């Protein structure tokens, strides 16, 4: 941690969720506490033991208080994790082993606990049971709390904070985010992560500005520093002067004006000047987001991510939980359609029971449909929930991470089996429910002509597709400069998928983050996509740009893009083309300083 107070220190990261905010830093140190190791005399032993017991008691009280303060019922549902932490605090081995070490080896309480942890760590690593092994991270979380109490450090207890803060962390998992009182969070800052890491996506859907991939944030920033952040550009200023704050706030005002102007487009159809209609839909993770989706003009839910149902809990969601969630979704978006993606766990999203710790390459490992095909009972429970809910509105099923036709056939066979069981039991359902494939693995895009015969629709997941096509980890800030949505390879892949879908007579959607960028959206229009799905907030500005275009003209321009050798040549050509045609509107759409 840096000691000197710095002024106007500019750090540049990756803009992950737009918005300009100023707030005090709240450092989530997690496992980064430095421990004093001291030998003690025999007379000091009982004092150290008592210090240790007091720190345990304080930790217990803090956890109980945090648990009691969770007001949001959605978040409360996930509070099981705090019970696990309380159980660890009561663990006799942790307690007795540490006290024994303090007494026998005559070391201070911090060192005693650290030695116990080392021993437990070794024991945990040898455990075969994945669920138990995963409890190791909980043990560390709890110990970090005990250490802080021993050291008299302030805690990362977000519930105690008055006013809004900017949370600064090395990393934040979706599970971390759910435990926070989001009303007190002005922004998120992390050392690691990229624009399409799951944390970034969650921040966007919660409309909380975020800058990720700052690398040095937790070591440069001190708790309480004043932070000025721009979640669009990725700029972060530590302890800004009034002059610098003013320039950011002026920019914020300009953006607000543009946003207000753009919001007028929410209720208008996404139709080009020559009458081509595109369906703009929303990507969401919670049923509660449906109102925001509607407010921003979504014509349906193009991607309902279901991972949150499985996170932060020891057990798995029941069929009834699935059913109730999807039923609420179907009813609240009715008469429009909601596309439910089956569990897409793995990569940067983990289930507590099924840790991917032991996989060398989790992004290439047992994730998404592969997991569902292995754990078919878990998959069936989710399908039963979806099918039962399908009688309450219009639902579609989307299969994630399809790599070839066998996975689709296998999933469809299981769907048919589940359907038959329900029909036999006289449970009402939509027997014609549509089933689609995410196209996010290069093999699926290359064989899209084959896959098109097997499904009712495609949804291109560019977040992963770009990662796999360009071999660029979507959450690794060191290679994020290579993560180029306009890479000639990416455009060629999308063109192939659209052509295959058209030849196969099925609609093709895009649900990757790429669709939310106006400049990319117009290229996607020219490539012939039928549906775009994106975070709700982005819908009005994409509608606005689509309504400015003529489809035929855009298509001709996009055809030209295939002659350019690099992503920047492509982007430059599109920007010039737009600036020539719509000098005023283009600037309004992007804001003055975003056009360069
Ligand atoms: C994608 O990969 O583009 C996608 C929409 O899915 P996720 O971001 O959840 O992996
Ligand atoms: Mg994906």
Q: Return the average pLDDT rounded to an integer.
A: 87
Uncertain ranges = 591-596
Radius of gyration (CA) equals 26 Å
Question: Beta-sheet strand percentage?
Answer: 5-15%
| CA(first)-CA(last) distance | 36 Å
- Give the names of the bound compounds: phosphoenolpyruvate, magnesium ion
Structural class: alpha/beta
Put the structure in a nutshell.
With 596 residues, the protein is of the alpha/beta class.
Describe this structure in words.
This protein has 596 residues and is α/β, with parallel strands linked by helices. It has 24 helices and 16 strands. The strands form two sheets. The chain has an eight-stranded mixed sheet. The chain has an eight-stranded parallel barrel with strand order 9-10-11-12-13-14-15-16. Helix 1 (45-68) packs antiparallel against helix 3 (80-89), helix 14 (376-389) crosses helix 15 (405-424) and helix 20 crosses helix 22. The longest helix is centred in the first third of the chain and has 24 residues, at 45-68. Residues 591-596 have low confidence and may be disordered. Bound molecules: phosphoenolpyruvate (PEP) and magnesium ion.
How is this fold's topology laid out?
Blueprint: E1 9-12, E2 14-17, E3 20-28, H1 45-68, H2 73-76, H3 80-89, H4 92-105, H5 109-126, H6 130-151, E4 165-169, H7 174-179, E5 185-190, H8 198-205, E6 210-212, H9 217-220, E7 226-230, E8 235-238, H10 242-263, E9 279-284, H11 290-295, E10 301-304, H12 319-333, E11 337-341, H13 368-374, H14 376-389, E12 394-399, H15 405-424, E13 434-439, H16 442-446, H17 448-451, E14 457-460, H18 462-470, H19 488-504, E15 508-510, H20 518-527, E16 531-534, H21 539-548, H22 551-560, H23 567-581, H24 583-590
Parallel strand pairs: 3-4, 4-5, 5-6, 9-10, 9-16, 10-11, 11-12, 12-13, 13-14, 14-15, 15-16
Antiparallel strand pairs: 1-8, 2-6, 3-7, 7-8
